[in-house]
Amino acid sequence: NAGVTQTPKFRILKIGQSMTLQCTQDMNHNYMYWYRQDPGMGLKLIYYSVGAGITDKGEVPNGYNVSRSTTEDFPLRLELAAPSQTSVYFCASSPRDAVQFFGPGTRLTVL
Amino acid sequence: GENVEQHPSTLSVQEGDSAVIKCTYSDSASNYFPWYKQELGKRPQLIIDIRSNVGEKKDQRIAVTLNKTAKHFSLHITETQPEDSAVYFCAAIPSTGNQFYFGTGTSLTVIP
Lengths: 111, 112
What we know:
heterodimer; A: seven-stranded mixed β-sheet; four-stranded antiparallel β-sheet; 11 strands; B: mainly beta; five-stranded antiparallel β-sheet
């Protein structure tokens, strides 16, 4: 099992550009999550999904969108990138009510 | 929703000493409490967890205790080693099971 994989590992965007962060898990978990982690800070939940076709907002959803068409994939879309979105983005998955497994993260810089 | 507070935010200990990190939660229905370790530049990884029907759990030098009445749980690391230096996050999961509520993290430094 590869676990949770994320692409790309690093990305530099210009202000106003858009991009999609990819997240895939091969553990057949229903629950998937997107977090952002600013330098020296904790994890803030952006969006989560409890199953294919179901998504819900977390603490900091503004400027982001998600979709969940399959159990395996949970892409995060950034529209009109802003410097405030410079962060490390972690995707995670879990069975219900159990440990979350994190991906390796995507380090995004918006200039 | 749930609110998790974590203390202290930074902790320095001498190698071989013990370290204790404490978290409090607000939702008495929360029933799962994991602890994650995040090394610099790495992803958070689970080190130990406890469910609400258990008061204490140990795994070698690491232990977690849960006081449901007081709504707090603690991470205990004994005989600390330099490789224990990292940021530690606690979390609480309510009975709905659809979100993790993370603490703000504790940066632990073990001084050789």
